[in-house]
């Protein structure tokens, strides 16, 4: 009886991730078609470009929701969890696949400088996929199996990039054309990020220890750091 609320909570996380996936698919664009780098583009939803594919992906998320509605009798990783994980991965893979397909088919000949940008549906679907993975994989006891299942989508994405299937996506074209600048900007970004995280750690840990040991300093420290 004590584990029932926890089980319900975890299934709610799974439902939340799948619901985000459905709303993302319906209301957000798969890609944005731009006539050139400067002008604003036209968002294209997957149901506008590939209606059947949209229904297949929608069905994947819907089945995940249906599976999560059944009452659970155990916390362990079961077949239903595996099916939910595979369906979520399949939904995201199909989204990537049709994004790549759209990048090759939606640009007309009268748009020599046209660009295809990644739509919001892809970015938000990453959140959906992560939510499902988090909800399902935390039930696995074997780290190796958890790691293998986690790496499925990154490996598929790497294969797509190396094969050139996503080569017409604007950010990929920019990288191929200006890889030196991309790598320089990436190094700068990583340096700034790690510097900020390092400084925060060096300052935060001593202040945390000090506020724990000297209770009268706790409120002033919190007031200053949260200012």
Summed up, what is this model?
This protein has helices at residues 4-27, 46-49, 51-69, 79-105, 120-137, 143-150, 152-163, 170-177, 179-213, 218-225, and strands spanning 31-34, 42-44, 115-118.
Your description of this structure?
- By secondary structure, the chain is mainly alpha-helical.
- It folds into 2 domains: 169 residues; 39 residues.
- Helix content is 72%, strand content 5%.
- The protein contains 10 helices and 3 strands, in the order αββαααβαααααα.
- Strands 2-1-3 form a 3-stranded antiparallel sheet.
- A hairpin with a 7-residue loop joins strand 1 and strand 2.
- Helix 4 packs antiparallel against helix 5, helix 4 runs parallel beside helix 7 and helix 8 packs across helix 9.
- The longest helix is centred in the last third of the chain and has 35 residues.
- The radius of gyration is 22 Å and the shape is globular.
- The chain starts with a helix and ends with a helix.
- The N terminus is likely disordered.
The figure for the number of domains is 2
User: Taking Cα atoms only, what radius of gyration do you get, to the nearest Å?
Assistant: 22 Å
Taken from the alpha-carbon principal axes, the silhouette is globular
Distance from N terminus to C terminus (CA atoms, Å) equals 44 Å
Q: Low-confidence parts, pLDDT < 50 over ≥5 residues?
A: 1-9
Strand order of the largest sheet: 2-1-3
Write down the secondary-structure element order. HEEHHHEHHHHHH
Mean pLDDT across the residues is: 83
Judged by helices, strands and strand pairing, the structural class is mainly alpha
């Amino acid at each position: 009886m004590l584990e029932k609320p926890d089980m319900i909570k975890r299934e709610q996380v799974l439902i939340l991730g799948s619901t985000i996936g459905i709303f993302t698919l319906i209301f957000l664009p798969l890609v944005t078609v731009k006539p050139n780098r400067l002008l604003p583009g036209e968002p294209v939803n997957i149901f506008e470009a590939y209606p059947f594919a949209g229904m297949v992906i929608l069905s994947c998320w819907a089945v995940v929701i249906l599976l999560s509605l059944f009452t659970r009798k155990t916390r362990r990783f079961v077949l239903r969890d595996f099916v939910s994980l595979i369906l979520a991965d399949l939904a995201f893979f199909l989204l990537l696949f049709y994004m790549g397909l759209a990048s090759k088919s939606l640009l007309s000949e009268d748009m020599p400088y046209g660009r295809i940008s990644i739509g919001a549906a892809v970015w938000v679907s990453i959140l959906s996929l992560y939510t499902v993975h988090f909800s399902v994989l935390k039930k696995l006891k074997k780290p190796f199996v958890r790691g293998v299942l986690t790496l499925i989508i990154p490996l598929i994405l790497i294969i797509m990039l190396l094969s050139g299937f996503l080569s017409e996506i604007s950010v990929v074209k920019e990288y191929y054309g200006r890889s030196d600048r991309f790598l320089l900007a990436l190094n700068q970004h990583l340096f700034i990020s790690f510097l900020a995280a390092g400084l925060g750690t060096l300052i935060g840990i001593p202040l945390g220890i000090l506020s724990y040991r000297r209770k009268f300093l706790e409120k002033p420290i919190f007031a200053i750091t949260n200012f």
